Fold HAD family hydrolase.
Amino acid sequence: MTMPTRRYDLLLFDFDGTLADSAVLFDLLLPALAQQRGVPQPAQGWHALRAMDSRAMLRALKIRWWQIPSVTRQMRLAMAQHLHRVQLYPGWSAVLEQLHAQGVQMVVVSSNSPSTVEKVLGPALGLFAAVHCRAPFLGKRAIFKRVVRQAGVAQGRVLSIGDEGRDADASHACGIDFVGVAWGLAHAQVLQPLSDWPLLQQPQDLAGLLASADQRA
């Protein structure tokens, strides 16, 4: 009996804004960070920053490269204090269970802390082959390379799922396909041009994407 051909053997998931419905914290935490840095609210509101790529957002918030690690730690701590507001985006639990049952390797690569990721994932944590936390804000590329190498999977058989341009940039720098989600931080018009597939409008769309990809394999 001929086994069906699978297009993607390894899925790399971003956490904040992708698996976790944490975009709600954007409006809560960003104004405080901006005020601390002496950045006035944009005329179009804070949501205007979501139409920027990661580097443009850093410039708008007057965050220099050497300040990124400390600001990232600050945001991790602030998010931990509001963790009761964060949960898995609706629909992910069933999708992740289905993919795990099909034997698809899944890995989380996040800039957040291990404790936050573990608490939000809850029982779904056991569905992932590995979880890599505290990834540098613009440094997922090296982690992606290491994860792919350790998994023994060809780069062309890996799909990355994320909600920001930096996720797409890191993926493409490694020769990995990327698909964006429509419910995260970056606006759809920013993310779609960087995505190798149509943006996921809901977690259930990932199953359809993988089925379509398998037919092309």
About this structure: DSSP finds nine helices and five strands in the chain. Residues 68-81 form the longest helix (14 residues). Strands lie at 10-13, 105-109, 130-132, 158-162, 177-180.
